[in-house]
Amino acid sequence: MTDTQWPVYEVFHQQARGEPHMHVGSIHAPDADMALILGKEQYCRRQACVNIWVVPHEAIHATAYENDDIFIRGTDKSYRESWGYQTPKTVRATDGGTADDG
Amino acid sequence: MDKIETLDALTGATREAVVHLLYRMADDELIIGHRNSEWTGHAPILEADIAFSSMAQDEMGHAQAYYEILHALGERDPDTLAFGRKPREYRCASLVCLPKGDWGFSLIRQFLYDAAEQVRLTALAESSLVPLAQLTTKLRGEEKYHMMHGRTWVLRLGNATTESHAKMQAALDRAYPHALGLFEPTEFDETLAQAGVCTREEELQKQWESAVAPVLDDAGLEVPDSARPVFGGRVGKHPPELAELLNQMQMVYSIDPAAKW
Fold it and tell me: Under CATH, what is the fold of the domain B10-255?
Protein backbone atom coordinates (compact mmCIF):
# COMPACT_ATOMS: atom_id res chain seq x y z
CA MET A 1 0.00 0.00 0.00
CA THR A 2 1.34 3.43 -0.88
CA ASP A 3 1.95 5.71 2.09
CA THR A 4 0.39 9.02 1.13
CA GLN A 5 1.49 10.76 4.31
CA TRP A 6 4.67 12.65 5.03
CA PRO A 7 7.92 10.66 4.99
CA VAL A 8 8.74 8.53 8.01
CA TYR A 9 11.59 9.41 10.32
CA GLU A 10 12.93 7.04 12.95
CA VAL A 11 13.41 8.73 16.32
CA PHE A 12 16.24 7.97 18.75
CA HIS A 13 16.40 9.58 22.16
CA GLN A 14 19.14 9.96 24.71
CA GLN A 15 18.25 9.94 28.38
CA ALA A 16 21.46 11.56 29.61
CA ARG A 17 24.65 12.87 28.08
CA GLY A 18 27.06 10.05 27.34
CA GLU A 19 24.30 7.44 27.21
CA PRO A 20 23.57 5.75 23.88
CA HIS A 21 20.71 7.02 21.74
CA MET A 22 17.88 4.47 21.82
CA HIS A 23 15.26 3.92 19.15
CA VAL A 24 11.87 4.93 20.53
CA GLY A 25 9.63 4.89 17.47
CA SER A 26 8.87 6.65 14.23
CA ILE A 27 7.13 9.81 13.17
CA HIS A 28 5.73 11.38 10.01
CA ALA A 29 7.21 14.76 9.14
CA PRO A 30 7.81 16.81 5.98
CA ASP A 31 11.49 17.32 6.78
CA ALA A 32 14.12 16.70 9.42
CA ASP A 33 13.61 20.02 11.27
CA MET A 34 9.91 19.37 11.67
CA ALA A 35 10.63 15.77 12.66
CA LEU A 36 12.79 17.08 15.52
CA ILE A 37 10.08 19.52 16.60
CA LEU A 38 7.26 16.96 16.50
CA GLY A 39 9.39 14.07 17.74
CA LYS A 40 10.28 15.99 20.88
CA GLU A 41 6.67 16.08 22.08
CA GLN A 42 5.83 12.66 20.64
CA TYR A 43 8.56 10.77 22.47
CA CYS A 44 10.07 12.99 25.15
CA ARG A 45 7.11 14.46 26.96
CA ARG A 46 6.92 11.63 29.46
CA GLN A 47 10.54 10.72 30.13
CA ALA A 48 13.97 12.16 30.70
CA CYS A 49 15.67 13.27 27.52
CA VAL A 50 18.62 15.50 26.67
CA ASN A 51 18.89 14.92 22.92
CA ILE A 52 17.06 13.31 20.03
CA TRP A 53 18.13 12.10 16.61
CA VAL A 54 15.81 11.70 13.65
CA VAL A 55 16.83 9.58 10.69
CA PRO A 56 14.93 9.15 7.41
CA HIS A 57 13.48 5.66 7.46
CA GLU A 58 14.81 4.91 4.00
CA ALA A 59 18.35 5.62 5.22
CA ILE A 60 18.18 2.46 7.29
CA HIS A 61 19.41 -0.78 5.79
CA ALA A 62 18.12 -3.88 7.52
CA THR A 63 18.59 -7.61 7.36
CA ALA A 64 15.68 -9.70 6.16
CA TYR A 65 13.72 -11.68 8.72
CA GLU A 66 13.83 -14.66 6.38
CA ASN A 67 17.53 -14.71 7.14
CA ASP A 68 17.14 -14.49 10.88
CA ASP A 69 18.76 -17.89 11.19
CA ILE A 70 22.09 -16.17 10.68
CA PHE A 71 21.80 -14.96 14.27
CA ILE A 72 21.43 -18.46 15.71
CA ARG A 73 24.61 -19.81 17.28
CA GLY A 74 25.26 -23.25 15.96
CA THR A 75 27.52 -24.24 18.81
CA ASP A 76 28.11 -23.11 22.37
CA LYS A 77 29.55 -19.57 22.20
CA SER A 78 29.00 -18.65 25.81
CA TYR A 79 32.72 -17.79 26.03
CA ARG A 80 31.83 -14.67 24.02
CA GLU A 81 29.34 -13.40 26.52
CA SER A 82 30.57 -10.64 28.74
CA TRP A 83 28.29 -11.18 31.72
CA GLY A 84 31.23 -12.43 33.74
CA TYR A 85 33.02 -9.11 33.40
CA GLN A 86 31.02 -6.62 35.39
CA THR A 87 32.17 -3.05 35.05
CA PRO A 88 31.77 -1.26 38.37
CA LYS A 89 29.59 1.83 38.10
CA THR A 90 32.35 3.91 39.65
CA VAL A 91 34.68 3.03 36.78
CA ARG A 92 32.04 3.94 34.22
CA ALA A 93 31.43 7.21 35.99
CA THR A 94 35.10 8.21 36.05
CA ASP A 95 35.52 7.81 32.30
CA GLY A 96 32.65 10.26 31.84
CA GLY A 97 30.44 7.58 30.41
CA THR A 98 31.94 8.17 26.99
CA ALA A 99 34.03 5.02 26.70
CA ASP A 100 32.78 2.21 24.54
CA ASP A 101 31.48 -0.45 26.90
CA GLY A 102 31.85 -2.99 24.12
CA MET B 1 17.12 47.76 42.94
CA ASP B 2 16.19 46.11 46.23
CA LYS B 3 15.19 42.47 45.95
CA ILE B 4 11.82 41.39 47.28
CA GLU B 5 12.78 38.02 48.68
CA THR B 6 9.35 36.65 49.64
CA LEU B 7 5.71 37.18 48.72
CA ASP B 8 5.03 38.24 52.30
CA ALA B 9 7.38 41.17 51.80
CA LEU B 10 5.07 42.57 49.12
CA THR B 11 2.99 45.44 50.43
CA GLY B 12 0.77 48.30 49.36
CA ALA B 13 0.70 49.47 45.77
CA THR B 14 3.43 47.07 44.67
CA ARG B 15 1.45 44.11 45.97
CA GLU B 16 -1.67 45.28 44.18
CA ALA B 17 0.29 45.76 40.95
CA VAL B 18 1.85 42.29 41.20
CA VAL B 19 -1.59 40.74 41.71
CA HIS B 20 -2.82 42.44 38.54
CA LEU B 21 0.26 41.33 36.58
CA LEU B 22 -0.21 37.73 37.70
CA TYR B 23 -3.89 37.74 36.74
CA ARG B 24 -2.98 39.01 33.28
CA MET B 25 -0.31 36.35 32.78
CA ALA B 26 -2.33 33.50 34.29
CA ASP B 27 -5.53 34.29 32.42
CA ASP B 28 -3.69 34.62 29.10
CA GLU B 29 -2.14 31.19 29.68
CA LEU B 30 -5.36 29.54 30.78
CA ILE B 31 -7.45 30.82 27.91
CA ILE B 32 -4.93 30.21 25.13
CA GLY B 33 -4.33 26.77 26.64
CA HIS B 34 -8.04 26.06 26.42
CA ARG B 35 -8.28 27.41 22.89
CA ASN B 36 -5.37 25.28 21.72
CA SER B 37 -6.79 22.22 23.45
CA GLU B 38 -9.72 22.55 21.07
CA TRP B 39 -7.37 21.08 18.44
CA THR B 40 -6.96 17.87 20.41
CA GLY B 41 -8.23 15.14 18.12
CA HIS B 42 -8.72 17.64 15.27
CA ALA B 43 -5.27 18.83 14.21
CA PRO B 44 -4.23 18.09 10.60
CA ILE B 45 -2.05 15.12 11.52
CA LEU B 46 -1.52 13.01 14.61
CA GLU B 47 2.00 14.23 15.32
CA ALA B 48 0.95 17.88 15.12
CA ASP B 49 -2.06 17.11 17.29
CA ILE B 50 0.11 15.64 20.04
CA ALA B 51 2.62 18.47 19.97
CA PHE B 52 -0.03 21.21 20.01
CA SER B 53 -2.05 19.50 22.74
CA SER B 54 1.07 19.05 24.80
CA MET B 55 1.85 22.75 24.47
CA ALA B 56 -1.70 23.58 25.52
CA GLN B 57 -1.03 21.58 28.69
CA ASP B 58 2.20 23.53 29.19
CA GLU B 59 0.28 26.81 29.08
CA MET B 60 -2.33 25.57 31.53
CA GLY B 61 0.46 24.42 33.82
CA HIS B 62 1.92 27.92 33.71
CA ALA B 63 -1.50 29.34 34.53
CA GLN B 64 -1.79 27.04 37.52
CA ALA B 65 1.65 28.10 38.77
CA TYR B 66 0.65 31.77 38.58
CA TYR B 67 -2.72 31.11 40.24
CA GLU B 68 -0.85 29.40 43.08
CA ILE B 69 1.20 32.53 43.64
CA LEU B 70 -2.00 34.56 43.59
CA HIS B 71 -3.48 32.21 46.16
CA ALA B 72 -0.39 32.67 48.33
CA LEU B 73 -1.03 36.41 48.02
CA GLY B 74 -4.52 36.00 49.45
CA GLU B 75 -6.59 35.45 46.30
CA ARG B 76 -8.95 32.50 45.98
CA ASP B 77 -7.68 28.95 45.32
CA PRO B 78 -6.39 28.10 41.81
CA ASP B 79 -9.44 26.03 40.77
CA THR B 80 -11.83 28.79 41.76
CA LEU B 81 -9.72 31.37 39.95
CA ALA B 82 -9.67 29.25 36.80
CA PHE B 83 -13.27 28.07 36.83
CA GLY B 84 -15.21 30.22 39.23
CA ARG B 85 -15.02 33.72 37.83
CA LYS B 86 -17.23 35.78 35.57
CA PRO B 87 -15.88 36.99 32.19
CA ARG B 88 -15.34 40.58 33.38
CA GLU B 89 -13.12 39.29 36.21
CA TYR B 90 -10.60 37.85 33.73
CA ARG B 91 -7.64 39.98 32.67
CA CYS B 92 -6.64 38.16 29.49
CA ALA B 93 -5.98 39.92 26.19
CA SER B 94 -8.43 39.58 23.29
CA LEU B 95 -5.85 37.60 21.28
CA VAL B 96 -6.36 34.50 23.41
CA CYS B 97 -10.16 34.80 23.42
CA LEU B 98 -10.63 34.54 19.66
CA PRO B 99 -11.93 31.21 18.33
CA LYS B 100 -9.29 28.81 17.13
CA GLY B 101 -10.03 29.52 13.46
CA ASP B 102 -8.13 27.46 10.91
CA TRP B 103 -4.82 25.73 11.63
CA GLY B 104 -2.90 28.68 10.19
CA PHE B 105 -4.63 31.14 12.51
CA SER B 106 -3.98 29.05 15.60
CA LEU B 107 -0.32 28.66 14.63
CA ILE B 108 0.15 32.37 13.97
CA ARG B 109 -1.63 33.26 17.20
CA GLN B 110 0.48 30.81 19.19
CA PHE B 111 3.65 32.13 17.55
CA LEU B 112 2.82 35.78 18.31
CA TYR B 113 1.74 34.84 21.81
CA ASP B 114 4.81 32.72 22.57
CA ALA B 115 7.12 35.47 21.38
CA ALA B 116 5.39 37.86 23.79
CA GLU B 117 5.61 35.34 26.59
CA GLN B 118 9.28 34.72 25.92
CA VAL B 119 10.02 38.46 26.04
CA ARG B 120 8.09 38.79 29.29
CA LEU B 121 9.64 35.73 30.92
CA THR B 122 13.10 36.94 29.96
CA ALA B 123 12.36 40.24 31.67
CA LEU B 124 10.82 38.54 34.70
CA ALA B 125 13.83 36.24 35.12
CA GLU B 126 15.58 39.44 36.28
CA SER B 127 12.64 40.57 38.40
CA SER B 128 13.26 42.05 41.82
CA LEU B 129 10.45 39.78 43.05
CA VAL B 130 12.53 36.69 43.76
CA PRO B 131 9.76 34.03 43.84
CA LEU B 132 8.48 35.23 40.45
CA ALA B 133 11.99 35.33 38.98
CA GLN B 134 12.60 31.78 40.17
CA LEU B 135 9.34 30.49 38.71
CA THR B 136 9.73 32.18 35.34
CA THR B 137 13.28 30.88 35.02
CA LYS B 138 11.87 27.36 35.32
CA LEU B 139 9.24 27.97 32.64
CA ARG B 140 11.60 29.37 30.04
CA GLY B 141 12.67 25.98 28.63
CA GLU B 142 9.10 25.13 27.68
CA GLU B 143 8.65 28.54 26.11
CA LYS B 144 11.85 28.12 24.15
CA TYR B 145 10.45 24.93 22.65
CA HIS B 146 7.16 26.67 21.87
CA MET B 147 9.09 29.31 19.94
CA MET B 148 11.01 26.66 17.99
CA HIS B 149 7.72 24.95 17.20
CA GLY B 150 6.02 28.16 16.10
CA ARG B 151 8.95 29.36 14.04
CA THR B 152 9.26 26.02 12.24
CA TRP B 153 5.57 25.97 11.31
CA VAL B 154 5.31 29.65 10.36
CA LEU B 155 8.36 29.45 8.08
CA ARG B 156 7.04 26.36 6.34
CA LEU B 157 3.46 27.41 5.84
CA GLY B 158 4.45 30.95 4.90
CA ASN B 159 6.75 29.66 2.17
CA ALA B 160 4.97 26.48 1.06
CA THR B 161 2.25 27.18 -1.52
CA THR B 162 0.26 30.17 -2.73
CA GLU B 163 -2.71 28.87 -0.77
CA SER B 164 -0.81 28.32 2.48
CA HIS B 165 0.86 31.71 2.16
CA ALA B 166 -2.48 33.45 1.61
CA LYS B 167 -3.99 31.71 4.64
CA MET B 168 -1.04 32.64 6.83
CA GLN B 169 -1.11 36.27 5.70
CA ALA B 170 -4.85 36.46 6.38
CA ALA B 171 -4.27 34.89 9.80
CA LEU B 172 -1.52 37.40 10.58
CA ASP B 173 -3.68 40.33 9.46
CA ARG B 174 -6.42 39.18 11.82
CA ALA B 175 -4.22 38.26 14.78
CA TYR B 176 -1.72 41.12 14.79
CA PRO B 177 -3.91 43.94 16.20
CA HIS B 178 -5.01 41.58 18.99
CA ALA B 179 -1.40 40.54 19.63
CA LEU B 180 -0.53 44.22 20.17
CA GLY B 181 -3.23 44.15 22.84
CA LEU B 182 -1.02 41.81 24.88
CA PHE B 183 0.93 44.97 25.71
CA GLU B 184 -2.05 47.09 26.70
CA PRO B 185 -0.75 49.73 29.11
CA THR B 186 -2.14 49.43 32.62
CA GLU B 187 -2.32 51.73 35.58
CA PHE B 188 0.17 49.40 37.29
CA ASP B 189 3.01 49.56 34.74
CA GLU B 190 4.84 52.42 36.42
CA THR B 191 4.66 50.83 39.87
CA LEU B 192 5.91 47.50 38.51
CA ALA B 193 8.77 49.16 36.65
CA GLN B 194 9.76 51.38 39.61
CA ALA B 195 9.86 48.35 41.90
CA GLY B 196 11.92 46.40 39.38
CA VAL B 197 9.25 43.70 39.17
CA CYS B 198 8.48 43.91 35.46
CA THR B 199 9.59 45.93 32.46
CA ARG B 200 7.09 48.49 31.08
CA GLU B 201 4.62 47.14 28.52
CA GLU B 202 5.73 49.55 25.79
CA GLU B 203 9.32 48.37 26.18
CA LEU B 204 8.23 44.72 26.09
CA GLN B 205 6.27 45.47 22.93
CA LYS B 206 9.37 46.88 21.23
CA GLN B 207 11.34 43.75 22.15
CA TRP B 208 8.49 41.59 20.86
CA GLU B 209 8.33 43.43 17.56
CA SER B 210 12.08 42.89 17.11
CA ALA B 211 11.61 39.18 17.87
CA VAL B 212 8.70 38.43 15.53
CA ALA B 213 9.61 40.69 12.58
CA PRO B 214 12.56 38.66 11.21
CA VAL B 215 10.65 35.37 11.39
CA LEU B 216 7.60 36.82 9.67
CA ASP B 217 9.89 38.34 7.08
CA ASP B 218 11.61 35.00 6.43
CA ALA B 219 8.15 33.47 6.08
CA GLY B 220 7.32 36.02 3.38
CA LEU B 221 4.60 37.53 5.56
CA GLU B 222 3.97 41.23 5.93
CA VAL B 223 3.13 42.86 9.23
CA PRO B 224 -0.04 44.89 8.64
CA ASP B 225 1.26 48.44 8.94
CA SER B 226 -2.06 49.99 9.84
CA ALA B 227 -2.68 47.56 12.71
CA ARG B 228 -4.31 49.31 15.64
CA PRO B 229 -4.01 47.51 18.96
CA VAL B 230 -7.15 45.96 20.42
CA PHE B 231 -7.23 46.95 24.09
CA GLY B 232 -9.68 46.28 26.90
CA GLY B 233 -8.75 42.81 28.10
CA ARG B 234 -6.58 44.06 30.94
CA VAL B 235 -9.55 45.94 32.42
CA GLY B 236 -12.04 43.11 31.90
CA LYS B 237 -13.57 44.17 28.58
CA HIS B 238 -13.57 41.13 26.33
CA PRO B 239 -14.95 40.02 22.99
CA PRO B 240 -18.13 37.92 23.38
CA GLU B 241 -16.17 34.78 22.51
CA LEU B 242 -14.67 34.74 26.01
CA ALA B 243 -18.06 34.30 27.67
CA GLU B 244 -18.87 31.48 25.25
CA LEU B 245 -15.55 29.82 26.00
CA LEU B 246 -16.02 30.16 29.76
CA ASN B 247 -19.54 28.73 29.55
CA GLN B 248 -18.09 25.61 28.03
CA MET B 249 -14.94 25.47 30.17
CA GLN B 250 -16.81 26.02 33.43
CA MET B 251 -19.78 23.77 32.61
CA VAL B 252 -18.71 20.75 34.64
CA TYR B 253 -17.18 22.76 37.48
CA SER B 254 -20.31 24.84 37.97
CA ILE B 255 -22.48 21.73 38.48
CA ASP B 256 -20.71 21.13 41.78
CA PRO B 257 -17.86 23.52 42.63
CA ALA B 258 -17.09 21.59 45.82
CA ALA B 259 -16.65 18.22 44.09
CA LYS B 260 -13.36 16.44 44.77
CA TRP B 261 -11.59 14.93 41.76
Answer: Ferritin (1.20.1260)
